[in-house]
Amino acid sequence: MNMLPDLFVQNIGQLVTVADASQKPKTFHRMDEIGIIKDGAVVIRDGYFIDIGTTRKLKKKYHRKDTKIIDAAGKVVLPGFVDCHTHTIFGGDRTGEFIQRIQGETYLEILKKGGGILSTVENTRKLKIQNLAELSRKHLDTMLLHGTTTVEIKSGYGLDMKSELKILKTIQYLQKTHPMDIVATFLGAHVIPPEYKHSPNSYVNLICNMLPKVKPYATFCDVFCDEGAFSAEQSERILKTAKASSFRLKIHTNEFKDIGGVSLAIQLNAISADHLDNIKQRDIVRLKKSNILCVLLPGVPFFLMKDTYAPARKMIENGVPVALATDFNPGTCPSGNMQMIITLACLKMGMTPAQAINATTINAAHAIGAAHRIGSIEVGKQADMIILDIQEYTQLPYYFSINHVKTTIKKGKIVVENMQLIDS
Ligand code: NIG
Ligand code: FE
């Protein structure tokens, strides 16, 4: 006797499972394999996939009088997107800066004048947890409506003990109250705050002292190692201290300049190196040997009006595991739409739609150490999936800037139906 399912989703035109028996991130030709089952069905119980196959086969096994059925009517199903790099908790926005940039000022010029990240820090420091949570919830809801079911969120707009803790506590509150899975990263090393402008190394000391206090709230520690932010030496000190306190490491690097962040990521065995828009062939080869996930964020050069996109094709040809994320933040990518990121990855970085789908699901799950639980549609994994109103997965990036997600299922529960959030 088969277990009675909680939910049976049938008549899926293309069930894109992304499944992969190997426990490792996908590389090389495996980036092009997305495990399509035609006329597929999935069976969900207690929040997990308990069976996957064709509708014909599974119908016989599981249909009972009272089975709850969703008919996908020939549409496409994907695993929920995993947005493995965001800065979702912030106050205010930067529309003024948007206009300045259109008129010719650069992102780094604005930052050097005390704007950019620092203006968001000012706006974030003013807010209470409850206000920050309200603002962030709205952003998370928008992401969920666009198919993201798991999100990584970094702190980094507080830059002092009290404000960084406030941001991490906001994340903790959202972890308890929002349907999405949220993983937290401490990014005290985002930029040097104004009060330490003349003594940046004292701020590095302060971050090292913050680490034990923020540990209960964050899994990862990240550093912005780039021009205008932290040097390789400062980043090394922070990341080494974090490693000693059992944080897993991430690094923002080579977004603007190559100042040695890739070497640091390799030396300290970071779980991911993110951005990499300005990376040399030599470092691509070194990254391959290290198996570090390269998290590429094409929304950033797009929004900053630059032509330097990370060389994704070259990375894939060299066997580097590539993931994609939005980098959702008020300065360099105020969009949390992973479908748009897939389109940009295809058009601006030469990734195929299949590669981009692997990069936004299973490889992105690896980039936050969660691939054993999420990122693909496989028996035993958490039932996170989206139904898109398209007939073939290639239509996702092709009909661009359209939200194709009709239904989102998170841990086996319908959280978006007919493009609307369901109140739980
Ligand atoms: O990932 N690079 C550093 N941090 C963000 C930008 C944050 C901001 O401009 O507010 C990024 O691009
Ligand atoms: Fe970022």
From TrEMBL:
Binding site for Zn(2+): 85, 87, 252, 327
Cofactor: Zn(2+); Fe(3+)
Protein residues bound to N-formimidoyl-L-glutamate: 157, 329, 331
SUPFAM superfamilies hit by this protein: Composite domain of metallo-dependent hydrolases, Metallo-dependent hydrolases
Chief site of localization: cytoplasm
Binding site for 4-imidazolone-5-propanoate: 94, 157, 190, 255, 332
Localization per Swiss-Prot or TrEMBL: Cytoplasm
Domain of life according to the entry: Bacteria
Record: residues binding Fe(3+): 85, 87, 252, 327
Cofactor note: Binds 1 zinc or iron ion per subunit.
Enzyme Commission code(s) on record: 3.5.2.7
Protein name: Imidazolonepropionase
Organism: Candidatus Brocadia sinica JPN1
Gene: hutI
